[in-house]
Amino acid sequence: MTKDDRALRPSRRDVLKLGAGAAALGAGSTLGAPMIWAQSLKDVTLMHVGPSYSIFPDIVAQASADLGFKVEMQNAWTADIMARMMSQPESIDVADLEFWALQRIWRAGKLQAIDTTKIALWDKILPLFRSGTNLDGSPASTQGSLPFEVQYVAAAGDKEFAAGPTGLATMMPTIFNADTLGLRPDLIGRPVESWAELLNPEFKGKVALINVPQIGIMDAAMAIEARGDLTYGDKGNMTREEIDKTIEILTALKQDGHFRAFWTSFDESVNFMASGEVVLQSMWSPAVTAVRGRGTDCVYQGLKEGYRGWGNGLGLMGHLEGIRLEAAMEYLNWMLTGPYGAFVARQGYYSAVPETTQASLTPDEWDYWYGGKPAAVEIKDPFGAVMENPGRARDGGSFEARVGGIRCWNATMDEGEYLVKRWNEFVAA
Amino acid sequence: MQITRKPLSFWLLTLFFVLFVLFLYGPMVAVFILSFQGPTGGMTFPMRGVSLHWFADLFTSTRYGDIGAAFGRSVVLGLLAMAITVVVSFFAGLGFRRRFPGSGLIFYLAIISLVMPGILTGLGIGTMFEALGLRTNWLISGLGAHLSWTLPFGLLIMFAVLNRFNGSWEEAARDAGARPVQVLRLVTLPILFPGLIAVALFGLTLSYDEYPRSLLTVGTRNTLPIHIANLTANVTTPALYAIGTLTTLLSLLFIATAFGAISLAAKKRK
Amino acid sequence: MTKIRAAQCLASPMLALLVAFSGAPLVMVVVLSFWSFDGLEYHPDFTLANYVEVFSSPVTWRIFFHTAFYAATTWAITLVIGFTVAYYLVFHVRNLKIQIGLFLLCTIPFWTSTVIRMISWIPFLGREGLFNSTLMATGLTDGPLTFLLFSDFAVILTYVNLFTLFMLAPIFNSMAKIDRNVIEAALDAGATQGQILREVVIPLSRTGIALGSIFVITLVMGDFFIVRVMSGGQSTSVVSAMKNNIDQLYYPQAAAMAVLLIATVILLVGSILRVVDVRAELAR
Fold it and tell me: Which of the 8 DSSP states describes residue A373?
């Protein structure tokens, strides 16, 4: 790309203050094409479809401004995104999916593999995604669907995943987190340290689980294993016997009135906790901060058996080609450059490229969200509301502590159909 | 007309009616009150102060996405679905006054349409469009999906409306020499008008509130129910309640206007 | 143009739209129910495996009966309420304008989106909700009533709240059409109010009752959202179980269940129509 061409699009690039990032972007830019491409790039419109915890109007607005072409978004649940990908692929350009969804949907062939050399910051992505290792070099937990296991393919068009890193990725990782149980310390009144407490009769009638079969059962499995009833081979990919035993225990508890409810949507979990209906439950990080924002104390408790991890990534739909593909690659690159990472950090999610996120957060914010240090100033959520007062540290501590504690990942199981059947039974009991 | 002049049954029934209305409005009242929640308040009681904060937040914060656009789409879809449902149901209802070959098919197709889970209807319509090489679009496939929901209601309500419809008025008009179109316009339509209003109201509200069918048929633009449902995945502020209050107020306005228009039209006819 | 032809013409837009937007999906659902899905790919087979699975699983029957239980209970309650309110409006409210005004009053809550109306039950019926707080404040109970929320009670309560209008409207319509002279004649003949109700009003409103019943039953049998939220995920319905399958892309299994559901409800509706032939009243 000649200097003249770069001069045609000055301001967007300048706006992105990145240091190393900017140089990398300039060097790795995919538009090694003449002027005419720069002109028609402006006319491209990309549709990014993703869950409402992952893609936001602010982000696509900023992306559109920075990149010069239009990025639009639509919120949808993961299940509906998958259904759309299957039956109406042209209605999506960039699919924002959880990694476990790839196990279900990759072989349908609706996504195209991403050439990792075209992602400028690929090498800065955490080793967790790139090579499946923790920050300290140890292999990450493969219980469940570790993103690394579905990250690469050997050749474009392959239906099976490659066993190790290749130059072709299925999706580009963007955000992830370590999930655990949320609780009301004021209503419980004592320290809670183990997943087994989820099954403690002391909390009968005041416990809730997430009502998604493959996630709810993993939370239950963490608790059951912690209590010592059963040791699972792979909590994220249970055998029929394991499923049966787990459902049995759950059904007994349910009939005993142990569970107050099961939640499907985020706001339910917030309401349960805020209203005191429930004192201990599966929960998502932003829900905890929402409850705290109401002035009610809620803790996202790090437990000794570890966390349950999940991650989202961006996939390119197979029908993208030519200039639209180029635009999509630019968009993907932009998503790793910092603004997006900073935005979601303020919800409690981690970015796949912490380096650029750090550059986009204030030092105080970085210390709080990633460093696990007590807040030096008021910490605000992405929309400006205060969610933490000075003096308090993030539950679970630093990025290293929390991510290092991930012991299983959100998954979809081989016996998934059997699981759904038995889960339906459990709910009907 | 009163069936009886005994006051006791009247008062008992009035009490029952009042309790019923209170019951109907109960959740709405909670929504209404909570939409005035104070800035630090949550989606449950207790109220932490009273404020218009969340109404303002709704319009100023980007957290809620483009609710206005989603609302606009739902209104447009609702009005279109309403209009089409009224016209199509009206004529179909008139047609059903005779037994004709195919009437059974239409009737049971309507029932099936009512029964089939919306998520599968939506999936089917979306797949059909794809197979035909068409893009799903809120105004086309979305409208179609909504119609699959409102038309059966429209048809069945027309049955109720036409039930024991006194055809003698029409006969009298015909005997007086009126042409079929005139009979329709000057006799049938005015008499059936209240029934058509019912069909219209049902069509509008059913479409406006429709969720499962819309999920896979709106293409790339969400309607209001989908938008709100998506919000619940990430938003838990009383602004959601503010949305509820605002749309209810709007509907009150709409119904009041419609009511006023009907009264005016009735007066004019006299 | 013959009268039959004319009738067919009039009904053809309805037919066209229904075939396009309901018939096509129906065909797809039926076809899908015979395919197989091995967890990874769809095979356009002709297999009865899905149906065998659905019919032989005791869970299917349990879920169907549970949903039917919801439908039956909701139907009974909405019938009583809908009939009573309609009776009140038609026969005890003198002014026609007020009648219609009060009726419209009942429809307004529909405009607060269902999703939002459901969220609001929690602050109303929850442990620390308005209802319990009032009860405890007035001393009627010691502790909060927990069965109000996340229970079958809550589900049915919500169904009744949302669907009574569908029973009320047709019955209101039918009742309003009852010829006053018939009532007058009965009164003159010395009939009591109860007798008039039994012998005149109910039979003459049977179309409305039938239609209202069809509406309520199909709405409840087809629901997944309300039962999930209001039971707190503790209970399920046919479509809710179906949705679990659909979310994981197990379409053939869901389709088989859907066919069973449709067949069941058509049977139910058919039996209602045997009692009240809605169309016979119409076609003369």
Answer: P
Q: Are A210 and A219 in contact (CB under 8 A)?
A: yes
pTM: 0.84
Cα separation values, B197 from B155, C137, C171, Å:
13, 45, 16
pLDDT of residue B89: 94
Alpha helices in C138-235 (DSSP H): 152-176, 180-188, 193-196, 202-204, 206-221, 225-230
pLDDT at C279: 67
Contact by Cβ (8 Å): C129, A275: yes
For B:211-230, CB contacts with C below 8 A are: 211-212, 224-225, 228-229
- Residue A303, pLDDT above cutoff 80: yes
What is the CATH superfamily name and number for domain B84-236? MetI-like (1.10.3720.10)
**pLDDT, tens digit, 9 for 90 and up, residues C121-135:** 777 777 777 777 777
Whether the per-residue pLDDT at A235 is higher than 80: the answer is: yes
Residue spans of chain B under pLDDT 50: 1
- Write the residue in B216, B222, B232 that is nearest to A267 by C-beta: B232
Q: Give yes or no for B110 touching C (CB within 8 A).
A: yes
CATH topology of domain A180-306+405-428: D-Maltodextrin-Binding Protein; domain 2 (3.40.190)
Q: In which element (H, E) is residue A176 found?
A: strand A172-179
Pick one of 3.40.50.2300, 3.40.190.10, 2.60.40.10, 3.40.50.11260 as the CATH number of A3-170+309-336. Answer: 3.40.190.10
ipTM of the complex, rounded to two decimals: 0.85
Asked if the C-beta of A40 comes within 8 angstroms of chain C's C-beta atoms, the answer is no
Helix ranges restricted to H, A157-212: 185-188
